[in-house]
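Quick start: read one record
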Amino acid sequence: MAISQTTEKSNEPIIELQGIDKVFGKVTALQDISFKLFPGEVHCLLGDNGAGKSTLIKILSGVHRPTRGEFRFLNGPVELDSPRQALDLGIATVFQDLAMLPLMSITRNFFLGREPKKTFGPIKVFDSASAEKTTTEELRKIGIRLRDPDQAVGTLSGGERQAVAIARAVYFGAKVLILDEPTSALGVKEAAVVLKYVVQSKAKGIGVIFITHNVHHAWAVGDTFTVLNRGRSYGTFRKADTHRENLLQMMAGGEELDELAVELDLIAKRDSGPMSELEHRVAEDLEAKDN
C-alpha cells in the first residue's frame, strides 16, 4: 500500500519534493513527483531504463531546475543553480561514472576540487602529505586498507572506487548522499561491499537516495521505496507495507507485463498445437494491435 507523504518519525525531512515536473520542449520527462528523505534513511528510487531516474538525479544535484513544483531542503525552499551549490548545502552525488580521473592518484581524486594547501610565503601548493594521511584514514574507517594512496585510482576495483567516492562525500560533510546505480557494473561480492557502505552512511545519520533498477539490492538496504515509470511515480512504500515482488511488478509495468505474458502464452499455444476459436481471435487481436 502506498504511503501518504506524512511520517511517524519525529525528525523533519532533509529533502522534500512537491509536485515536481520537468519538461524538455515537447517531452515531459517527469510529472508530479513527490517524496521525502529523512536523516538516517535509505530511500530507494526504482525504475527501469527511461523511467526518469537520471532526470530526477540531475534536479536533486543542481544540474537541472524543475519546470514546476517545489524543492525543499531542511524545511526551506531552494532553487539550485549548479552542482556546486548543491555540494555547499551538503547534497553529494556519486554518479555512475564516479567523476574520477583514472590516471590520477587516489589522494588527488579524493580531494579533487577541494585540495588542501600549504603556503610558502605568497605561494600556495598542494599539501600532499596531509592529503595522503587523510585519504588513508578515511578509507580505513569504511574498511578499505590502501596499499599506496599515491597509486592511480584506475588500478582499483569497481567496488573500491565506489568506496573512495562515498568516503569522499562523507568526509566533506554530506547530509544527503545520492548514489546513481552504484552496483550496476559490479559483481556479486563487490556489490555486497558497496551495500555495506550504504548501511554505514545511514548509521552516520546521512540521508541516502539509492537509485537503481535492481530490486534485490534495493530491498537489502532500503527503508522506503519510490517507484518511477515513464516519468510518473507509482507511489512511495515503506518496507513493512510491501514486498519485493510488488516493487518488481510495478517497475516492469504491471498490467503491461501481465498482458505480454498472456500474449506470449497464446502465441506459444498457436505454434505448438491446436487452439480454441476464442484463443485464435485474442491472439490475432493482440498481433493487430502491435502492428
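The chain has ten helices and twelve strands.
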